């Protein structure tokens, strides 16, 4: 498989992956990067790429517009760069198939959610035949987790526990694109977690479309089914030495059980954070959405979580303007938001997706009504966020320092970290320390020079803690700091009084050395167990640009 640049230069081809959508797509993009590097490609890291891969989302209408807008911008770039290739994968590719080439005939490869592993071979064949290639499979032939991965972060990692979804929500297109749920064996998940921790990772997030259904759809027929499998998995993660934080997303209220709450409360490294999608506070709308829980059950889950973990931060998803939603239905949603006291909410204006039952339902809500309700919901949730955050002023928090400091924070010489409950905290490294110099770029930073925490600081060394902190090293992404909250906003906290303590970590060392974790294949695909990385098999059949499978 050749990954040399065209025109016989002998240079390796540079790639760039652009990711739209959910955490599952972000994790799939890590697999795409791992496959490409195994095939000899190298990251572009800011240079002009020879290959651009779009990993797409199909959940919302603007996802289509975003993809095709980006493809249009690349068309003249490709015309001016002989040998450049463009590939489109993910949920939108799985849905649109040959439509991608109809709308953007300069695309070279279209691949779906079920055959990520075919990408290098498809690129080779498109280049060899000088003809676009489409390959869309209807079901997985292996877990994406059996593919190699190049991780985006030195300190935090995604670990998939399952793929697909067995729910039939009327607004959601994901089950038709990702397929039925299939679960990985616990031993394979733990092997991947341990491999990440061995490379310095401190935090993992367990991923699934519905993690609470985990254990009922194992791919391995020899693995006994168990409704308590996810709680057992959380407890097992608690035994992994060096793993400091465990998160998971997303559960489903209909299947959320008390054994998971107990495991969260009793397992020290499981974070007091829960993402619990509400979607609507109206029982009538929930029924139309085919969400098999009601308002009282949802609020009861939150009560039990807070009884076990009083300081748990609970986040949610809410859709405004679902077909047939009345003002009374919307008021029911506002009532739940007021009662639930979410620490954050991902709010969406409903947009019909072709292929979903909701798209053809009667009584579609007028856009201007949806927008007005959406604005009211956002205003209420921001008020709730601010009020709840204000209760944290004066409290000490432990932060995992991250590499995603905002420009505004940098201008004020602040760094950024995540508290154990998932809240974002911008913090000052320490008044009077006399140092505000560069943080060295690391895994995923994409930087070619030092990242300055503040313009005009004039310092020349790494950030040092304030006097009396007792720390012995710089503050780097991946390190752990303790600080005190001094002020708040709806979507973040601030700590401007300096740090109380700093703990340098192996994750911080890896970030500073620009080392990203890599993971090889683990465990089973969808057939017999395998050991090591399964070879990338040649693609045996192809399609012309007008075709599709």
TrEMBL record:
Cofactor(s), names only, from the UniProt record: [4Fe-4S] cluster
UniProt keyword Iron present: yes
InterPro entries per the UniProt record, alphabetical: Elp3/MiaA/NifB-like_rSAM, Methylthiotransferase, Methylthiotransferase_CS, Methylthiotransferase_N, Methylthiotransferase_N_sf, MiaB_methiolase, rSAM, rSAM_horseshoe
Keywords for this protein: 4Fe-4S, Cytoplasm, Iron, Iron-sulfur, Metal-binding, S-adenosyl-L-methionine, Transferase, tRNA processing
Cofactor: how bound: Binds 2 [4Fe-4S] clusters. One cluster is coordinated with 3 cysteines and an exchangeable S-adenosyl-L-methionine.
Leading EC class: transferase
Name of the protein this chain belongs to: tRNA-2-methylthio-N(6)-dimethylallyladenosine synthase
Main location: cytoplasm
Disordered: annotated segments: 428-478
Source species: Gordonia defluvii
Record's subcellular location: Cytoplasm
Domain Radical SAM core: 151-388
Positions bound to [4Fe-4S] cluster 1: 22, 57, 91
Sites where the protein binds [4Fe-4S] cluster 2: 165, 169, 172
The keyword S-adenosyl-L-methionine belongs to this UniProt entry's keyword annotation: yes
């Amino acid at each position: 498989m050749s990954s040399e640049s065209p025109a016989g230069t002998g240079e390796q081809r540079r790639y760039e992956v652009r990711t739209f959508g959910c955490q599952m797509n972000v994790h799939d993009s890590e697999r795409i990067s791992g496959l490409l590097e195994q095939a000899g490609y190298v990251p572009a890291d800011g240079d002009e790429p020879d290959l651009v891969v779009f990993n797409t989302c199909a959940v919302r209408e603007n996802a289509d517009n975003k993809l095709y807008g980006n493809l249009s911008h690349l068309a003249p770039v490709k015309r001016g760069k002989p040998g450049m290739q463009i590939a489109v994968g993910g949920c939108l590719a799985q849905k649109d198939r040959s439509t991608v080439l109809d709308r953007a005939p300069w695309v070279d490869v279209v691949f779906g959610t079920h055959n990520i592993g075919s990408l290098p071979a498809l690129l080779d064949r498109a280049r060899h035949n000088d003809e676009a290639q489409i390959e869309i499979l209807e079901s997985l032939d292996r877990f994406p987790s059996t593919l190699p991965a190049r991780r985006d972060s030195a300190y935090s990692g995604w670990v998939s526990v399952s793929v697909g979804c067995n729910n039939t929500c009327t607004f959601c297109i994901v089950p038709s694109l990702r397929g039925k749920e299939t679960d990985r064996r616990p031993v394979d998940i733990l092997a991947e977690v341990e491999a990440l921790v061995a490379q310095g990772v401190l935090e993992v997030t367990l991923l699934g479309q519905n993690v609470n259904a985990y254990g009922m759809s194992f791919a391995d027929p020899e693995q006994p089914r168990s409704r308590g499998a996810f709680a057992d998995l959380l407890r097992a993660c608690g035994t992994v030495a060096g793993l400091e934080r465990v998160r998971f997303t997303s559960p489903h209220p209909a299947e959320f059980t008390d054994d998971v709450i107990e495991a969260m409360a009793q397992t020290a490294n499981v974070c007091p954070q829960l993402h619990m999608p509400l979607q609507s506070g109206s029982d009538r709308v929930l029924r139309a959405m085919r969400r098999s829980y009601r308002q009282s059950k949802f609020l009861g889950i939150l009560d039990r979580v807070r009884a076990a973990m009083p300081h748990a931060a609970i986040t949610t998803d809410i859709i405004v303007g679902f077909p047939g939603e009345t003002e009374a239905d919307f008021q029911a949603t506002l009532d739940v938001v007021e009662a639930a006291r979410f620490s954050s909410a991902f709010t969406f204006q409903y947009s019909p997706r072709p292929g979903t039952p909701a798209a053809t339902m009667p009584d579609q809500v007028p856009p201007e009504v949806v927008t007005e309700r959406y604005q009211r919901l956002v205003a209420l949730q921001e008020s709730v966020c601010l009020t709840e955050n204000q209760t944290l002023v004066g409290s000490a928090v432990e932060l995992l320092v991250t590499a995603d400091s905002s420009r505004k924070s940098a201008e004020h010489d602040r760094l950024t970290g995540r508290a154990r409950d998932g809240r974002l905290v911008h913090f000052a490294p320490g008044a009077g320390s006399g140092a505000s110099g560069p943080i060295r770029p690391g895994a995923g930073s994409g930087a070619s020079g030092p990242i300055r925490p503040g313009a005009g600081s004039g310092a020349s060394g790494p950030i040092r803690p304030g006097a009396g902190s007792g720390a012995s090293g710089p503050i780097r992404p991946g390190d752990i700091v303790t600080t005190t909250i001094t002020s708040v906003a709806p979507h973040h906290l601030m700590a401007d009084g300096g740090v109380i303590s700093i703990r340098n970590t192996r994750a911080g060392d890896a970030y500073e050395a620009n080392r990203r974790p890599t993971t090889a294949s683990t465990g089973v695909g969808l057939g017999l167990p395998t050991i090591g990385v399964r070879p990338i098999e040649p693609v045996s059949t192809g399609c012309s640009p007008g075709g599709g499978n």
